[in-house]
TrEMBL record:
The lineage of its organism: Bacteria, Bacillati, Actinomycetota, Actinomycetes, Micromonosporales. Its EC number is 2.5.1.47. Keywords: Pyridoxal phosphate, Transferase. Residues 20-313 form the Tryptophan synthase beta chain-like PALP domain. Coiled coil: none annotated. It is an enzyme of class 2 (transferase). This is Cysteine synthase A. GO terms for molecular function: cysteine synthase activity.
Length: 354
């Protein structure tokens, strides 16, 4: 197969995969005390790699193939071990390319196993911040391509929007009439909130976008003070969301509200969602549910009605031995009792207590 033929073959595969993709489920939460403000969960754990990141990974690879950065046999390298790496490993395998995730030395075995399950390998380095330069170096050494999702996701999302490629916001907006009042998501790389916020503005929707943020993260203080270069120097403890700096893909201008959520509240809400409400998800979705309760209460107090959509970025399974494990949670010093009581009262009475 010539190089040109391979590009056609790879692009065709990825486009066919995109065309065959089904919308993920929207679950309505059982909240009888708040009939005028339903909360719905958009369950992105139903994507093939179990997270919201799958579409982004496919778009990233499509762009890299079209630009000629990725050719037949090009080894791929990324500097993360999270959901993005799992998704990129899956897409790489589809194209017959090797994929290596450069991850911090102490990454949990479950994380490594998820990447391996999709055909990827990992390369451990320390300190954690050295993953970026090591990924770049490794890509050079093997004549490969450093995918560098932190820098490249923003342009990939914008290209999809310019080309009318349907994405997560299309699925939400097409499923709901009237349009939702709010969509709530978290921010890690900032990609999901960028894709949703820019889409809403581009298409003239009245739906507003709320981003929930974790303790120690730069997004809330940076957004409130309008300081793009705000830095905390501290890692987030809620996997997938919260960063020590505002990442380049995050667009504060398309975010209507950033809601800081205490870490213990995120974990309590994650467990409440899985238990009482029947939707198993990860801790970032717990943070989103907490933010959604705040918004639903605010709307109901103002006499407004409308739907609040929570984006569930991933499911519960990757967190069984961590955020769903009582001993592990106790070791973090989080007391879940008070936030759990607040959630239970909210669901029973509609009273958020604030
Ligand atoms: C668990 C989880 N939550 C939320 C997100 C959304 O964050 P981002 O801003 O990177 O799209 C991600 C992204 O990987 C994630 O893995």
């Amino acid at each position: 197969m010539s190089d040109r033929d391979w590009v056609r073959y790879a692009t065709g595969l990825l486009e066919a995969d995109r065309a065959a993709e089904r919308a993920t489920p929207l679950h309505r939460l059982p909240l009888p005390a708040m009939p005028s403000v339903p909360i719905l969960v958009k369950d992105e754990s139903a994507r093939v790699t179990g997270s919201v990141k799958y579409r982004f990974a496919r778009s990233l690879l499509l762009g890299a193939v079209a630009r000629g950065d990725v050719r037949r046999g090009t080894p791929l390298v990324e500097a993360t071990g999270g959901n993005m790496a799992v998704a990129e490993a899956h897409v790489a395998r589809m194209l017959g390319l090797s994929f290596t995730a450069v991850v911090p030395g102490r990454s949990a075995p479950d994380r490594i196993a998820r990447i391996a399950a999709h055909g990827g390998t990992v390369h451990r380095v320390d300190p954690p911040l050295a993953v970026y330069e090591n990924a770049e170096r490794l890509a050079r050494q093997v004549s490969g391509h450093y995918l560098d999702c932190l820098s490249t996701l923003g342009p990939a999302i914008d290209a999809d929007l310019d080309n009318g490629v349907p994405g997560l916001p299309d699925e939400i907006m097409h499923a709901l009439t009237p349009e939702p009042a709010w969509i709530v998501t978290g921010a890690g790389t900032g990609a999901t909130s960028r894709a949703i916020g820019r889409y809403l503005r581009r298409h003239g929707h009245a739906t507003r976008l709320a981003v929930v943020d974790a303790e120690n993260s730069a997004y809330f203080p940076g957004w409130v003070t309008d300081a793009r270069d705000y830095a905390t120097g501290m890692p987030s403890r809620i996997e997938g969301i919260g960063r020590p700096r505002m990442e380049p893909a995050f667009d504060p201008a398309v975010v209507d509200l950033v809601i800081p959520v205490p870490d213990a509240s995120s974990v309590a809400a994650m467990r409440f969602l899985a238990g009482a409400l029947g939707v198993p998800a990860g801790p970032s979705t717990g943070a989103c549910l907490w933010g959604a309760c705040h918004l639903a209460h605010r709307m109901s107090r103002a006499g407004e009605s409308g739907t609040v959509v929570v984006v569930a970025a991933d499911g519960a399974d990757p967190y069984r031995r961590t955020f769903y494990d009582d001993d592990w949670v106790a070791g973090k010093g989080w007391d879940l009792a008070e936030p759990a009581r607040r959630l239970e009262r909210f669901v029973r009475t509609g009273d958020w207590g604030a």
